[in-house]
Design brief:
- Helices cover 0% and strands 54% of the residues.
- The protein has a single domain (5-113), classed as Domain of unknown function (DUF427) (Metal Binding Protein, Guanine Nucleotide Exchange Factor, Chain A, Beta Complex), CATH 2.170.150.40.
- It is an all-beta fold.
- Strands 1-4-5-9-8-7-6 form a seven-stranded antiparallel sheet, with no helix packed on it. It has a three-stranded antiparallel sheet with strand order 3-2-10, with no helix packed on it.
- The chain has strands at residues 5-9, 14-18, 21-26, 30-34, 40-44, 53-62, 66-74, 79-86, 100-103, 109-113.
């Protein structure tokens, strides 16, 4: 693992809300902390309502984590583009986040501890 990145179990229960619905709820979320950035919560895929997510064409590369795939959230009234990402085959030292998704929190998506 890169020395400036830590992954640990996130305390408590975490949820993702978008479009008036709870898309994820987990007591098994992971918190990734990287120097210079705020913490990012990664939700196990089994704790996410994947029917509300659609694979996006967007991809990105991080030299520490690897190649990311993106997902859009489909709600009743809108599609929130590239609102979540996953490292399907993360680099060595980041394997803990495989099978997990992180979400862009903001005006349309809430990621919060309950």
């Amino acid at each position: 693992m890169a020395k400036h990145i830590t992954i640990s179990k996130a305390d408590g229960t975490w949820v993702v809300r978008a479009g008036g619905a709870v898309l994820a709820e987990s007591q098994n979320a992971l918190e990734l902390t990287e120097d210079g950035y705020g913490p990012v919560i990664y939700f196990p895929r089994d704790d996410i309502a994947m029917d509300f997510l659609d694979v996006s064409e967007r991809t990105s590369h991080c030299p520490h984590r690897g190649d990311a795939s993106y997902f859009s959230i489909i709600t009743k009234s809108t599609t929130i583009q590239d609102a979540a990402w996953s490292y399907e085959n993360p680099n060595e030292g980041m394997r803990e986040i495989a099978g997990h998704l992180a979400f862009n929190g903001g005006d349309q998506v809430a990621v919060e501890q309950v």
